[in-house]
Amino acid sequence: MSEGIGARVKRKEDKRFITGKGKYTDDIRMENQAYAAFVRSPHAHARVNGIDASDAEGMEGVIAVLTGAELKADGIGNLICGWAISSKDGSPMNMGPWSALATDRVRYVGDAVAVVIAESPTLARRAAEKVAVDYEELPAVAHADKALAKGAPQVHDNAPGNLIYDWGIGEEAATDAALAASAHVTEMHITNNRLSPNPMEPRSAVATFDESEDHYTLYTTSQNPHVARLVLSAFYNVAPEHKLRVIAPDVGGGFGSKIYIYPEEITCLWASMKTKRSVKWTADRSEAFMTDAHGRDHITTAKMGFDKDGRITGFKVDTIANFGAYMSLFSSAVPTYLYATLLSGQYNIANIYANVRAVYTNTVPVDAYRGAGRPEACYLIERMMETAARELGLDAAELRRRNFITQFPHQTPVIMAYDVGDFGGNLDKAQKAANVAGFPARKAEAARRGKLRGLGYSCYIEACGIAPSAAVGSLGAGVGLWESAEVRVNPVGTIEILTGSHSHGQGHETTFAQIVADRFGVPINNVSIVHGDTDKVQMGMGTYGSRSGAVGMSAIVKAMDKVEAKIRKIAAHQLEASEDDIVIEGGEVKVAGTDKKMAWHEVGLAAYTAHNLPAGMEPGLKEGAFYDPVNFTFPAGCYIAEVEVDPDTGVTKIVQFTAADDFGTIINPNIVEGQVHGGVAQGIGQAMLESVVYTDDGQLLTGSYMDYAMPRADDVPFYTIEHNTTVCPNNPLGIKGCGEAGAIGAPPAVINAITDAIGSNDLSMPATPARVWAAISAARPRVAAE
Amino acid sequence: MADITVTVNGKAMRRSVPDHTLLSEFLRETLRLTGTHVGCDTSQCGACVVHVDGRAVKSCTTLAASVDGAAVTTIEGIASGSDLHPMQAAFNDHHGLQCGFCTPGMIMSGIDMVNRYKAEGRALTPDAIRHELEGNICRCTGYHNIVKAIEDAAGRMTSMATAAE
Ligand code: FES
Ligand code: FES
């Protein structure tokens, strides 16, 4: 089957993108379209004593200036966080109010207080500058550790000490005892740097209110338009669901940042009702830095104990997570159920305890960004392992091997039950592909050129396809995490797949068609994928957490099962055979062992002409399904980075990067490898380049590409990719998910390689030349003294 | 207002534009050629790259008034009918795009660098491609397949040119 599962099929969707015919939100123009510009706070924290919009309102071409007070008066609800987390003492999390337009107080630079609607984007911006806001500046706090200090400025009145929750998982006393009895304890202080997701397409929204029908249409840059509609209806009171259509057309990348429903979309919808105009807003990049949810930003202290044979005895973790000024949609789940539950890594650890404190600061809200919690867990564990190996005088790979989980299923002490894996096999494959045996020679050769060469490992595991619904519900999730699909076989035999998953670069139009081709033997060009429109697909949960393969495709398989069952009945009836003897292959429906058959399209036609169907059968050939997973999936792998450092300048080059991943079944290796490439580049970006920087009083210093270092082509190498497949036993295709692995696995591999090269464990991300040089310098006198 | 005479994708036209109109705005909003994208406000991402008289420029930092008398080519103008430009085909063949947002700029920059290196008789090595892509950011692909696509297209463009000679 050349187009089926496992085939390196070229993407079907490419044509429109390479010819400039993609349709992104900002490409849409409605009749009667006006433009929104937001009036944003220049202060990190201030009281708003008044807004004078008269100058702006007087400008020609300005349609309206709208404020938070009016928004509130119209009953638009506050933004919410959809995952309830309780503190250790049982108290609920302290969620402060978040209005789409701030009324009395602003809490971060960029917090919007008003919106201008005007005839052109330029005019709207100019008018926004004319809106006079009377701010009374308040003391601000930007960094998580400072937010918890006594006397720190209070971000929300209902979160004393800026504490949102103080949460724990695992057995503290047992972990303490295990650490106390250990032969060796490795202790580290680890910062996971704050990042800005930066999909290349900035966020955008076009909202239209149809007064005659009381109906809204929103085009928006969303990874999950159905969840957007649900939240806009149920919580923000914009309109009931049947009066609100949300369309996410082509979306230029998301990486988590387009999961959330932001103040701007809400405001555009509301403003279109107020002004009776279509309202468009498109962020510029500075606005994206100022308003798109950031990622990571953890400060952690951890202790890992080992017995005399180098086996892990216990792992104790204390993390402070910076949530920014407001609790974004999934923020609370990230440093808890997406982080602490992965702290066992790939290792047998009998005792784990993690304490997580989430805090408010006067910064952009923080939420899930590619990997979401799992990169933070992986970075912590894998740096601990590498450091421990150095302290114990053991080979870093050997220490990992001694501790690998080898029996499956495996229940960790932190909720997760790993279903299957081959951690040693991943490591073997990576070591072979990276030619680890040849490393000493390469290091010696580099030394002759005056370069420090280092090699670092990262053995990551993650949990994808967040599920099952009942389980996540019991942990506080406000939604179920299933997926929906509908398979429509048309009378001429072509097939439409409706899915609740959303593609914003993942290539669903190709891979989803491949699983249909694989099943029914039809060419992928006869299959089209419909997604991203609440009028076309009834409900879906969208794409994030690497769930479209494991959950989205499983729903399609379930719907295909139903279609196939009906096809068997129709064919058996028409061919006068038993249903059990019907086989579907190569675009034909046949009776096994005979020459009796129907062409694929004849079955479709028979279902719709309905002239000769089995007694009592409904006409038509269309089936839907909802798929709720029975467990998370657990992609895992081993990454090896090799770097060369110039000791005089600290300039570091990644000379080799090897990834050996176990993603379960792979539908299209091109697309899966592309996901790894992109994820690894983002991981390298976090490790060496990227960092959102705030001053202590909350001014954002990295507000453009002049100051925030995005990975360029020159910063990354060609990647070597290996696959080591153990099939996931818990979904019909055996898929685990591949979207986040690179961003999870890469950072520790890179930092472990650099610290190996320079002979110091004391290095933080991003490992800029200045930091690397400083670490070399700091390590030098010690070396000399020894 | 500025009156400009410009040829866009082979079509000559006269237009009146406000002086401050950027070329990217002119293409996207006036001509509705939305294949040219805007991904930043500091002239760094390259999503907006088009050709002006055969050379790659960032349309986000070019005034429409300044292309008076010039020939502008955008992503919509490089295929011949239904035949894709070799650079477009190579991006498809090598999976050089994911979300597609950076792609028009990547393709236009790719064509430009191939032409320049050829004119200068220099070899467009993968390292050179990476260096040349300094002004084009992609967040999805990790650049691996973009570099491969441009390298492959360079070969195809050269052999096409040779065949045409
Ligand atoms: S939009 Fe022109 S360089 Fe970014
Ligand atoms: S393909 Fe998405 S930014 Fe390049």
The name of the CATH topology of the largest domain in chain B is DNA polymerase, domain 1
Shape of chain B: globular
Shape of chain A: globular
Count every helix of chain A, treating DSSP H or I runs of 4 or more residues as helices: 20
Q: Which structural class is indicated by helix and strand composition of chain B?
A: alpha+beta
Q: Main sheet of chain B, how many strands, which sense, barrel?
A: 5 strands, mixed
Strand content of chain A: 15-25%
Strand order of the largest sheet of chain A: 3-5-1-12-9-10-11
How much helicity do the residues of chain B have?
25-40%
User: So what's the CATH class of the largest domain in chain A?
Assistant: Alpha Beta
Poorly predicted spans of chain B? none
Strand content of chain B: 15-25%
Rg of chain B, Cα atoms, Å: 16 Å
Straight-line distance between termini of chain B: 44 Å
The share of residues in helices of chain A is 25-40%
What would your notes on this structure say?
- The complex is a heterodimer of chains A (786) and B (165).
- In chain A, 29% of the residues lie in helices and 22% in strands.
- Chain A is an alpha+beta fold.
- Chain A folds into 3 domains: 15-138 and 201-252 and 258-291, Aldehyde oxidase/xanthine dehydrogenase, a/b hammerhead (Aldehyde Oxidoreductase, domain 3), CATH 3.90.1170; 385-462 and 634-785, Aldehyde oxidase/xanthine dehydrogenase, molybdopterin binding domain (Aldehyde Oxidoreductase, domain 4, 2-Layer Sandwich), CATH 3.30.365.10; 482-627, 2-Layer Sandwich (Aldehyde Oxidoreductase, domain 4).
- In chain A, strands 3-5-1-12-9-10-11 form a 7-stranded mixed β-sheet. In chain A, strands 7-15-14-13-8 form a 5-stranded mixed β-sheet, sandwiched between helices. In chain A, strands 18-26-27-28 form a 4-stranded mixed β-sheet, with helices on both faces.
- In chain A, helix 10 (374-392) packs parallel to helix 19, helix 15 packs parallel to helix 16 and helix 18 (669-688) crosses helix 19.
- Chain B folds into 2 domains: 2-77, Ubiquitin-like (UB roll); 86-164, [2Fe-2S]-binding domain (DNA polymerase, domain 1, Orthogonal Bundle).
- Chain B has helices spanning 23-30, 86-93, 103-120, 126-132, 144-164; strands spanning 2-8, 11-17, 49-52, 55-58, 71-73.
- In chain B, strands 2-1-5-3-4 form a 5-stranded mixed β-sheet, with helices on one face.
- In chain B, helix 2 (86-93) runs antiparallel to helix 5 and helix 3 (103-120) crosses helix 5 (144-164).
- The chains are: A alpha+beta (786), B alpha+beta (165).
- Chains A and B meet through helix 1 and helix 18 of A and helix 2, helix 3, helix 4 and helix 5 of B.
- One FE2/S2 (inorganic) cluster binds at residues 38-40, 43-48, 58, 60 of chain B.
